[in-house]
Write a structure and sequence with these properties.
single chain, alpha+beta, Outer Surface Protein A, domain 3, elongated
Length: about 210
């Protein structure tokens, strides 16, 4: 497989990783649903008596502190079941949920901004780290093709990416408009290849 083909494969997987980040919106909807449930009680609170006294059935459970502030909620929302934990200011700091796409774990800061997210979808697991403004800056995922790591700028463009496949490791450095400008690939056999690209995407220098 040529270096250009390996680079194209890596770019394809990076686009897929960005779609996985957008999928996290489902996890955030779940978090929002849990918050609404905690405040407005939109989900049923009836506890059903059972023949077995050791069993309690309900659609939501709310954990409150001594001041009556909701600090945790376990509920079933339209997105699926979830568990959310809140700080003393009522900000959600951790949400664990299961939607139709798969399980997810979202960690947020004191400003209610997501900072880390772990998700598992049908074709692999992924971890995304966000900056203080909630923008994805580092993404790591792995699937049947192999592991991938991408570092993005404030505009969401992957500026540095590395991946390992059956054809060997590939490193891609891109410009501000997401075009590769330098790549390094190491095949299973033969010499490593280094390519430099111009602004128009043409190869300006390569070795070997």
């Amino acid at each position: 497989m040529s270096a250009e083909h390996r680079i194209a494969t890596l770019e394809r997987d990076l686009r897929h990783a960005r779609r996985q980040v957008r999928w996290l919106g489902g996890g955030l909807l779940l978090a929002g649903g849990l918050a609404v449930a905690a405040v407005a009680g939109t989900y049923g609170t009836t506890i059903h008596a059972q023949p077995d006294a050791r069993v309690v059935r309900a659609q939501r459970f709310v954990l409150e502190d001594a001041n009556g502030t909701s600090r945790g909620i376990f509920a079933v929302t339209p997105e699926g079941p979830g568990l959310a934990l809140y700080d003393a200011n009522g900000k959600p700091r951790m949400t664990l949920g299961l939607s139709q796409d798969g399980p997810s774990l979202v960690l947020s800061d004191a400003n209610d901004t997501q900072r880390a997210a772990l998700h598992l979808v049908e074709d692999g697991a992924g971890l995304t780290l966000f900056d203080p403004q909630g923008r994805p800056r580092a993404q790591m995922n792995t699937n049947t093709a192999g592991p991938r790591l991408a570092l993005s700028d404030v505009n969401g463009n992957a500026r540095a990416a590395v991946g390992v496949t059956a054809d060997g490791p590939v490193l891609v450095l891109s410009d501000t408009i997401d075009k590769p400008r330098a790549t390094l690939a190491v095949p299973p056999s033969g010499p490593a290849s280094l390519l430099l690209f111009g602004r128009d995407g043409t190869v300006s220098w390569r070795t070997p």
